[in-house]
User: Fold these one by one.
Assistant:
Number 1:
Amino acid sequence: MDDLRRKGLDKMNEVYGWEMPDIQGDPYFDLTVEHLFGTIWTRPGLDRRSRSMITLTALIARGHHEELAMHVRAARRNGLTVDEIKEILLHATVYCGIPAGLDAFKAAHEVLVAEGAVPKPKLSAPRIAALITSRPVFRPPSVCRMVRSRRSLATSAWCDSATPSSHGTPA
């Protein structure tokens, strides 16, 4: 095994926290090990925490939420706190769009709950907002359809009952 491949495998093990087997003859694996981890992740100038922040943002921007879950785990291993991950997701949501942000928060939340880093919520986000403001939360019907179609915490009853007239907002 050459030095670049060894360096890449070592960095993958460091970032992900498991012993990566050396898969021979797979061009995708070769690219990942030698170039992504052997060259890019080992460059001086950015630490693992910073590279994890960039990676989370890039995955959100491209809509790669399955891989985002793996990199949330890696980000925790690389020293990011739950609060830092939340801030990265929130910041990326503004630039990448609400649907991408909703999916990213959902993927990250599932990982963080599974790892015991955050408690499992007892109330949905819309119900919490209604409790805080002491009034129903208004969402236009088009947003409700989008939220329901993205399988968020919103329910049909919540969207259908939150009309402008139900909380004093002019129609």
Number 2:
Amino acid sequence: MIKQLDISASRVINQLISKISTLSSFLKIITHTSSGKIYPLYTIIIPFILEPGLQIVRIGLIAFAFQVPAYLLSKNLIKRERPSPNSGINPIIIPPDKYSFPSGHCASSTLLTLIINQYMPWLTIYFIIWAMMIFISRVGLGIHYLSDCIFGVALGFISFLLANQLLSIFF
């Protein structure tokens, strides 16, 4: 029953987004702002544009040192196929790989939002909106189920908490 609810809700979001071309075009752009390929660029830029940039990068590197292996292990152990037209979900973009669980984009955007909240809370609302747009884009563009994104958010939270624990112990 939960699986069917997950598929049905994901289908409704995908169908709604696919009917609004301006929104789907916007989400195609937004979704790439949380791609794994963009975070090295963020690592270089953030220390130059944000006052606590080095602290943000330090906690980010520690958190990603946990998050990336956990993400890859989950993807390759669970091997959940991405949504497909067979389930009434039509991909609007080409997925980056074969498996969908968990959403690395949602994990990373959640992690960055939590780090920004810790060091620059006045920017948090903007990052929450961005992370929500990433979440919606992954489902709406037809490359993730809702549950993939929910577990991605959870992975981002766990990575953030673990990185803070490690920082408090060792630094």
Number 3:
Amino acid sequence: MRLALAATIILIGAVGHAAAADGVEAAVRKAAAAYAEAYNKRDYAALAAQWTGQAELVEGDVRIAGRDAIVASIRGWLERHPQAKLAVTVTAVEQVAGPLARVRGSLEFMKRPGEKPVASPFVSLRVLEDGASRLAESLVAPNHAAALDELGWLVGTWQATDAKDGTTVEA
């Protein structure tokens, strides 16, 4: 009898934990979609609401600390790229503890409509704060291939002609 009772308690606990994890994952996915929407609408108040006050954003070797600094950085980038759009793809959500979830996925940036998007993988920590799933930390890996794409104008044939003797060199 005790064994059956213990098994029932464990089963109820496991079902409760699975339901809680499903709720966390749903909240994280909803927050990620809202983040992309706020970014694309240039809704800086909604973007700020996505971050905790002491959040950190790390992109490559650049670390930005604090919600206000993060939003100011995003705003600056968007002002330099007024047609830019963002898509967020969440590939995994792991509930680390209670209100804390580790999120993995990809950010796809497009500077102008019709351009090839630049994908950068990310790992974030989201925490439940005041009923909302907020970013406490986000680590974004730079996309080095995208940096090389900007050097595409270097590809091709180069030609130089010596003004004195008219010799032409092609490389």
Number 4:
Amino acid sequence: MSAEDNEIWQSYANDGAEALRDIEESLLVLEGDPKSSANINRLYRGLHTLKGNSGFMRLAQIERLAHVSEDLIGLVRDRGVALDDEIIETMLKVVDRLGEVVGAAGNEQRDAAPERVADLVAAVSAVTASRDPKRAPPAPAVAPRPATPPPPAPSPAPVMYFSEHPDSVGP
């Protein structure tokens, strides 16, 4: 890697650390004041910055975790979803993991392994889906009921021979 490449990676790590500080500080304030729009916006901006920088660096796994987290906070910011304890606890876990993978990416100059973020991507996505019906996973397909067989056809009328018919004229 060239000195310029090293500088770019270092800049990514520094910007990521700054965004993570903003995110964490916002969460700590929001624990006591979950309706603070200034801190909700600051939290959202930090996630948005981290997502964008990770995308620019082609760090798909880090970008993915930042993206689903940004989506969740977007529900709070834009749709009036209450910032409850479950969201805050989930986001604090996200901040810890993002701190680990962003720092490692800056040092190792590569993306996180998918398994480093998959559990939290799933957890954040589940919390998001539980708050936003549009993002809920599709309901399992219901097997169609078997068609009710048609009723049996009526039995044919008994066959009567001409000689047996009551109106017949006999020999």
